[in-house]
Amino acid sequence: MHILIIDDDSNDRFMIIREMRREFSDVQVEEVGEPEEFEQALAAGQFDLTITDYQLRWTTGLEILRTLKKRFPDRPVIMFTNTGTQEIAVEAMKSGLDDYILKSSKHLVRLSTSVRSVLERNETRRRASFYENRLQSLLNQLNVGVFRAIPDGGLLEVNSAFLRVLGLNSLEEIRSNSNFDAIFSKAGDLTPQHRRERELKFRRADGSLIWLAVNETLNTTNGEAVIDGLIEDITGRKRAEESLKRYATRLRTLQELDRSILRAILPTEIAEAALAATYPLLPCQILDVTLFDLETQQATVLAVLSNDGIDLSVGETFPLSDFCNIETLQQNQALLIENLAEQPRLYLLQQRLFDQGIHLIMNVPVIAQGQLIGSFNLGAIQPRSLTDEDMDNAYEVANQLAIAIEQSRMREELHRYTEQLEQLVSNRTQQLEEANSALEAFAYSISHDLQEPLRAMRGFASILLEEYDTALNSVGQDLLHRLASSVERMDNLLVDLLAYSRLSRVDLPLQPINLKLLVRQVLTQLEPSLQEKQARVTVVEPLLEVVGNYRTVEQVITNLLTNSIKFVAAGVQPQVRLWTQRRDRSVRLWVEDNGIGIQPQHLERIFGVFERLHSIEAYPGTGIGLAIVRKGIERMGGQVGVESEVGQGSRFWIELPEFFK
Ligand code: ADP
Questions:
Q1: Is any atom of ligand 1 closer than 6 Å to the C-beta of 116?
Q2: To bridge 380 with a disulfide, which of 43, 49, 94, 284 should be the other Cys (CB 3.0-4.6 Å)?
Q3: What is the pLDDT of residues 326-351, one digit of tens each?
Q4: Judgement on whether residues 487 and 599 belong to the same structural domain of the protein
Q5: What's the predicted TM-score (pTM) here?
Q6: For 34-46, b where at least 16 C-beta lie within 10 A, e where not — what string?
Q7: From the CB of 605, is ligand 1 less than 6 Å away?
């Protein structure tokens, strides 16, 4: 501890020093008896505390006190004097004196007590002010305003952050404005110890609007009710919340737009859906989608949405030159006029909307595959500036519209093409059917008409063979036999052809067929051929029942069985197996042989008319048998097919609806 002792009486100084040294172990003393020494001590500023006399030769203790307090307001000063009066003491206390002690040997003891308590008090004060400063700077840093108010009686005190938050310079400014009291010193529903939290909008002196969070409690200090409160500027948070909310709405709306566009099919529906979804998003009173025809230079309104009875109708057309600056739109740039009143209305439509009170107009290009196909337009009664967000939204809608309208047009085109194609196919089918039936009628009549002369030829040939055989030499006889067999072959051909063409000409009434009986009947008919070939036919029972035309099924099975014993390698005993298989709601009848088999590339071909894979000499036939099989089965609503491997035999199958009892 460093004590400055100011007294021009060296004996007095000696006494004070002795007393101090006795009381305090670590004391350092600086003596001042002359003004120069005082100046030096002031300049060095080493001391913690001063003890001064009042009556000095060169000044008074009061002056000393004031000089000291001016330079070092926090360092205690004790006046130790025998010349002072009560007035001086009061005066000195007002100037910040820490203690006043009368100078006498009896009071010397008091001096050290006083030094001790003054120092302690000073330390406490210093610490308190340190904490207060720290709190203050903390509060200021937090930007939290603190206030204390009397309920209905105005603000008592505030911190600097309070003033800063509200944009004020002093508490006086608040007091002269009743607006503040209304907000900050109304007890209202406040009850003791219950916190009240509010968020409110506040207009600052400079006109700016801020959001405040106000937090208040009703307390009692010295028996008086006070409101202690905190205010915080939450404008940033509020703005962020609002923009988040706006962003969420925007996202929702755009999603809704996507969905409704997907649901819509026609361009009009798409445009209407887009307008309905966008209307809440954009600050406007009219929205429309207009399509352009750059060839005819016409604009046609596709959809309009307006809640203020603004006159613009769907289907209206304008020359493009009355609409807006198309060239700019073609460069994929939007047109925006924020206040039509301040601009020449260059286009007829602009003037028309302006006459109806519209001030703001924006046209956003709708561009599909690099081509301007129209524009998405909005109009607002209030002139205003659009935000970036508004612009983004408008562009987004225009882009979605472009895609959707383009898709819808493509869909329409595809639809048109499909219809055209279907028409074409149906025309061709009809032509083909007509040609086919003409051909079949022709084939039928030819085969029918040919049968008669053929029958005559066969008659004459057999007379020749029977009665004039011996009249011919061997060459003549050979020729005659060839003639007879050709006639035979032609007859077979005609019979088969007739059977084939009859299949498409007659009705084939359907009935349940017991395949077991039918197969047995066919086998009986084929008995001579089977015996001749020594063929073995196995029928795997039971055979399921089908629905079909009895005669046709009989013919089909006859043809398959005939083939299965015919196309067998020489010297091999034909072995045939028949069985049925249930498939979904139909029955497949299989006819399997151990014949020569068929090469895979011919499997389909053999079902055509006159398609044969062998010479007549090797395997006789007309090439119509399988054609009859296919035609007959298909006319009964069934299917045919074959599986085969060369040298391993073939498996033919026919499929007909199953008969359910
Ligand atoms: P066709 O038996 O009168 O020759 P098809 O129309 O019945 O006429 O048969 C067409 C061709 O299919 C036959 O010439 C033959 O080459 C082949 N084919 C038919 N059935 C069989 C079979 N089971 N095995 C081997 N080839 C067959």
A1: no
A2: 284
A3: 999 999 999 999 999 998 899 999 99
A4: no
A5: 0.43
A6: eeeebeebbeeee
A7: no
